[in-house]
């Protein structure tokens, strides 16, 4: 299977593919290789290689012939080449860090246009736009970070598609306020997961602790005692409960003139520049008019609901639909006083099917899986003049564009943003309109 005693293969790397890897071939078999670049020759260690599998996976561990776009990885723990020298795996979450930022964006554009071509039959030249004010090194943008806890009680992160835990002592993609908490010095024995979030309104960070099964109160109290300068709460993701320990169980986020309350486990855009950028894209792309009937679907805590409500004014209306009970409660608080807004907790397709609203304009911001055919059928049946679709996955977005096309709609404006530097992820905003036919 391998062609050297160290268990590696020499591979010539082909094009980039969706998912953070490039495609190579070995004896007729496709291998998805991470931490490489198109055109390179690398030695790669197979990470998944079942005999019967239609493709294998591998990590580049040594570069034989480098691409001119290759740079030193800014995060040593996520650097696959350094990790291989230590006989370890890199942490997941910065799989494009070995690529110059401008070249990362070109690869993302290639992936986006390829998905759009393959799944929707649409050909577009795509430029991936950096976030205005992005740091030149593409670091310090995450306002949210999630950590596992290693067997020694210290913070750790997972290797890609693996249970392997790698101890961490910095998170260069995270904003300074997260690193300054120095959570790596805390002994988290009795905790299985740690989530940290920093709001933009100046409050202390919020640390959510998920206790390990059977953890004793004394253990969690000992952990909390070690955390300074942050609110702390215990979180049970199964039950969806958050128990305050010190400080607040929610964060305040300010975008423009609006401040939002975000409950500890509630969704908020991760990049510090994302909320403002996406809000401007949505409002600029849809030109919402006073008196219009709008819907904000997958509305979270109301990031887009508030400015849409202001745009339609008191003579218009906004139907905001959100599945999570906590985010929906936040939205009710955040939109309090805007009588034109109706916040409904429930699944988008079911709420639209039950209510059968007539709409002028719709914003869709679904999770990674996309909106899907049932929701899109209901959206197009509501008769809007335009849909603004915010997406964090080019594959589910392109599939959904296909569903809109089946209903006679067309893709109009399309913008793609580099909201997740050093990872393969990207965010897009599109305007779809009913076809003239
Ligand atoms: C990508 S977030 C967008 C939230 C909001 N637009 C924002 O930018 O802050 C997607 C939201 O959809 C919600 N959600 C997921 N599936 C849903 C469904 N089937 N129906 C309604 N909401 C859903 C999630 O709870 C989450 O708040």
TrEMBL record:
Residue spans crossing the bilayer: none
EC number from the UniProt entry: 2.1.1.-
Gene3D superfamilies on file: 2.40.50.1070, Nucleic acid-binding proteins, Vaccinia Virus protein VP39
Pfam families the record matches: PCMT, TRAM, tRNA_U5-meth_tr
Top EC class, one word: transferase
GO molecular function, one term: methyltransferase activity
Residue sites binding S-adenosyl-L-methionine per the record: 269, 298, 322, 365
Keywords of this entry: Methyltransferase, S-adenosyl-L-methionine, Transferase
Superkingdom as given in the UniProt entry: Bacteria
Single GO biological process annotation from the record: methylation
Active-site residues from the entry: 392 (nucleophile)
Keyword S-adenosyl-L-methionine on entry: yes
Domain TRAM span(s) in chain numbering: 1-62
Similarity comment: family membership: Belongs to the class I-like SAM-binding methyltransferase superfamily. RNA M5U methyltransferase family.
Protein name in UniProt: Class I SAM-dependent RNA methyltransferase
Protein source organism: Arthrobacter flavus
Source lineage: Bacteria, Bacillati, Actinomycetota, Actinomycetes, Micrococcales
């Amino acid at each position: 299977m391998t062609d050297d005693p160290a268990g590696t293969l020499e591979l010539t790397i082909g094009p980039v593919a969706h998912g953070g890897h490039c495609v190579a071939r070995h004896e007729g078999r496709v291998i998805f290789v991470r931490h490489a670049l198109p055109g390179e020759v690398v030695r790669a260690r197979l990470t998944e290689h079942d005999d019967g599998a239609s493709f294998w996976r591998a990590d580049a561990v040594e570069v034989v012939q480098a691409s001119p776009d290759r740079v030193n990885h800014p995060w040593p723990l996520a650097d696959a080449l350094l990790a291989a020298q230590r006989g370890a795996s890199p942490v997941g979450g910065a799989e494009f860090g070995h690529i110059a930022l401008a070249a990362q964006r070109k690869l993302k554009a290639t992936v986006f246009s390829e998905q759009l071509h393959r799944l929707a039959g649409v050909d577009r030249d795509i430029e991936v736009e950096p976030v205005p004010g992005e740091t030149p090194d593409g670091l310090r943008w995450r306002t949210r970070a999630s950590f596992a806890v290693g067997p020694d009680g210290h913070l750790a992160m997972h290797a890609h598609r693996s249970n392997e835990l790698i101890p961490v002592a910095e998170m260069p993609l995270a904003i300074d306020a997260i690193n300054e908490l120095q959570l790596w010095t805390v002994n988290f024995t009795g905790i299985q997961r740690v989530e940290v979030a920093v709001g933009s309104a100046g409050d202390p960070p919020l640390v959510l602790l998920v206790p390990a099964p059977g953890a004793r109160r004394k253990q969690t109290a000992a952990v909390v005692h070690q955390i300074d300068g942050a609110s702390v709460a215990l979180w049970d993701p199964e039950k969806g409960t958050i128990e305050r320990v010190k400080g607040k169980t929610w964060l305040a986020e300010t975008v423009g003139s609006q401040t939002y309350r975000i409950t500890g486990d509630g969704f908020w855009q991760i990049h510090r520049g994302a909320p403002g950028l996406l809000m401007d894209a949505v409002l600029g792309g849809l030109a919402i008019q006073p008196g219009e009937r709008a819907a904000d679907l997958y509305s979270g805590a109301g990031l887009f609901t508030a400015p849409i409500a202001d745009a339609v004014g008191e003579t218009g209306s906004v139907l905001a639909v959100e599945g999570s009970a906590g985010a929906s409660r936040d939205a009710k608080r955040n939109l309090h006083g805007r009588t034109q807004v109706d916040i409904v907790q429930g699944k988008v397709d079911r709420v639209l099917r039950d209510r059968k609203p007539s709409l002028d304009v719709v914003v869709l911001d679904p999770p990674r899986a996309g909106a899907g055919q049932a929701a899109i059928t209901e959206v197009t049946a509501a008769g809007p003049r335009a849909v603004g679709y915010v997406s964090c996955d080019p594959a589910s977005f392109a599939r959904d564009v296909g569903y809109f096309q089946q209903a006679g709609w067309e893709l109009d404006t399309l913008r793609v943003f580099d909201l997740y530097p050093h990872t393969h992820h990207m965010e897009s905003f599109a305007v779809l309109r009913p076809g003239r036919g």
